[in-house]
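Key result, reporting period 2: structure in, sequence out.
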């Protein structure tokens, strides 16, 4: 599996995924994958339930 590393995030951009991860009982890495999938319009598999993320702009 590929790896992504990012540095020098503004505090607000960093803290929001950390809060979401904690609320959803995920690691920061898992939450980052979920957020990226949603942002890019990928189908997200939550076990037996699949959700298609649609971005409206």
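The corresponding designed sequence is given below.
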């Amino acid at each position: 599996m590929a790896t992504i590393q990012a540095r020098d995030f503004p505090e607000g951009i960093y803290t929001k995924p950390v809060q979401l991860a904690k609320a959803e009982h995920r690691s920061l890495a898992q939450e980052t994958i979920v957020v990226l999938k949603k942002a890019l319009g990928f189908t997200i598999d939550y076990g037996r339930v699949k959700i298609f993320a649609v971005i409206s702009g």
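The longest strand covers residues 43-46. The helical segments are 11-23, 28-40. This case is discussed further under Risks and Mitigation.
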